[in-house]
Design a protein that fits this description.
The protein has about 260 residues and is an all-alpha fold. It contains eleven helices and no strands. Pfam families: BPD_transp_1.
């Protein structure tokens, strides 16, 4: 058994690392794209990956790509901060107070099952075709998901740790920081990872329907022109930014949050 374990560790040690696996996986996806474009045989339907280099460079040089990318990222940032803040507060309250949970659970179920498109359209009709309506629509779509995850985390809090903190008369803020939040950290990071993945997609729909700038607006514009290359340029540019956020921010944060559990 020990020899098998040592052999497995040796294979893992000599195999490709985490970044190597990621590079190989993405290379496989690119190879599949090249093959699909070759079989299609029509650059207007599916261009080869290298055919996007020139339109990407032109969009970058003109300043259009950075401008619209920045507008979308600003909306994603505002919606993410608001949804996480309100969702964490709501989820903790519902998880800690069963009576409140019984009253608010039907609301949570309704908003969880309300289509994002309906909320977006209603916000535009009620508030207007403006920035406030866009951010409110995205925030309202994400709060129920965050609250649901955090509620489960609050229900799973160790009552013994809470009782110990009360025996030692820890102030509320210190108890929150040193007792509650470390236990909720995996749930918060899970909600954040799922949240950022969903929020940016909803933001693109919001921009597609009712904004005059942003990646979603540009995709709508080039969709009308049937310019597949530019649709892919804007789509993959934003996906690259979100992958960077995932790999450089969210995944390290998740590993750090789980470290205390050993």
């Amino acid at each position: 058994m020990g020899g098998q374990t040592g052999s497995a560790r040796g294979d893992a040690r000599h195999g490709p690392g985490r970044f190597g696996v990621t590079a190989i996986s993405i290379s496989g996806l690119l190879l599949l794209w090249v093959l699909a474009a070759f079989l299609t045989g029509d650059a207007q339907i599916l261009p080869q990956p290298w055919a996007l280099v020139q339109p990407f460079a032109e969009a970058l040089r003109s300043g259009e790509l950075p401008y619209h990318l920045g507008r979308t990222l600003a909306r994603v940032g505002w919606a993410f901060v608001l949804a996480m803040g309100l969702g964490i507060a709501l989820g903790m309250a519902m998880g800690r107070y069963p009576r409140l949970d019984r009253w608010l659970d039907p609301w949570l179920v309704i908003f969880l099952n309300l289509p994002a498109l309906v909320l977006i359209v209603l916000c535009y009709l009620w508030i207007g075709l403006n920035e406030t309506a866009a951010i409110v629509a995205v925030t309202l779509n994400k709060i129920p998901n965050v609250a649901t995850v955090i509620r489960e985390g609050a229900r799973a809090l160790d009552p013994g740790l809470d009782a110990m903190a009360r025996v030692y008369r820890m102030p509320a803020l210190r108890r929150l920081r040193h007792v509650v939040l470390p236990q909720l950290a995996p749930f918060i990071t899970g909600a954040a990872r799922a949240g950022i993945a969903v929020i940016w997609k909803i933001v693109l729909v919001v921009e597609f329907l009712g904004r005059s700038d942003g990646v979603g607006f540009q995709i709508h514009l080039y969709f009308q022109l049937f310019d597949v290359a530019m649709v892919l340029v804007y789509a993959f540019s934003f996906i690259a930014v979100m992958l960077a956020v995932e790999w450089l921010v969210l995944q390290p944060w998740e590993r750090r949050a789980r470290r205390w559990r050993g």
